[in-house]
Amino acid sequence: xxxxxxxxxxxxxxxxxxxxxxxxxxxxxxxxxxxxxxxxxxxxxxxxxxxxxxxxxxxxxxxxxxxxxxxxxxxxxxxxxxxxxxxxxxxxxxxxxxxxxxxxxxxxxxxxxxxxxxxxxxxxxxxxxxxxxxxxxxxxxxxxxxxxxxxxxxxxxxxxxxxxxxxxxxxxxxxxxxxxxxxxxxxxxxxxxxxxxxxxxxxxxxxxxxxxxxxxxxxxxxxxxxxxxxxxxxxxxxxxxxxxxxxxxxxxxxxxxxxxxxxxxxxxxxxxxxxxxxxxxxxxxxxxxxxxxxxxxxxxxxxxxxxxxxxxxxxxxx
Length: 318
Fold this sequence. Notes:
Blueprint: H1 5-8, E1 26-35, E2 51-55, E3 63-69, H2 71-89, H3 93-96, H4 108-113, E4 115-117, E5 126-128, E6 132-134, E7 137-138, H5 143-146, E8 148-152, E9 167-171, E10 177-185, H6 189-201, E11 215-225, H7 232-242, H8 253-268, E12 275-278, H9 280-292, H10 295-317
Helix pairs in contact: 2-6, 2-10, 6-9, 7-8
């Protein structure tokens, strides 16, 4: 599979094979996660959402309480969506590899996201470290300004009436925004397209995702660099500096994305290592490449890369 013309100018930021040994090559995907339905982000069963105290903004050290969506929640969803893509391209994948404890460690997904698997009769465990680096995401506004307590009940199938309430749950309502960063370390251009494919296809996050928790992912910027440039919390605090507090309740995604891009432009200029920022029309061209890519061809080519990487690792070990 040939490198698409659109990605040729960024070829120096990619590795040729998905090797376990990494280089200081990073591709950061900056996105805005927009909640479209009532959502629950928690780690334990119960009514309380995950929260954390953070500064109000980069310029204001006053502490406020924000809802936090942990990075592993995003990774779990997007990894499953990526594996759905592989299953569609490779029917035999279903029999060979399963999350969480039956990983084959020979498929492109395991070589990208990492994993550990014990082979019966082997003297040691086989392991691959993750080259996808996820971060938690934080609400722009204080918990007290956005969280709603929703009461749920059930309707009797016989009488058609509702009984007493079953439970109450704190939830994030629609039109809440979560700036977020996903960093890829030493990836091939095919792995980048695979990750973009998983991101744009993922839409259900958090608890009770079968009936709610719809989220739309807006990809804002792609930053190639010799290191990680910005963090999710930094983006959140920067937006709170740039947008007046009384405007946060009625701001829309387009204005937030505009402010994110403006902050990124200024932030990367302060870095001491090399970076290359992709926004606007150039970013749209890359997303169009993902959209037009035949997924079976991509997955088959990624399997070929994994086979070559395995052979390379074996030769280095001998």
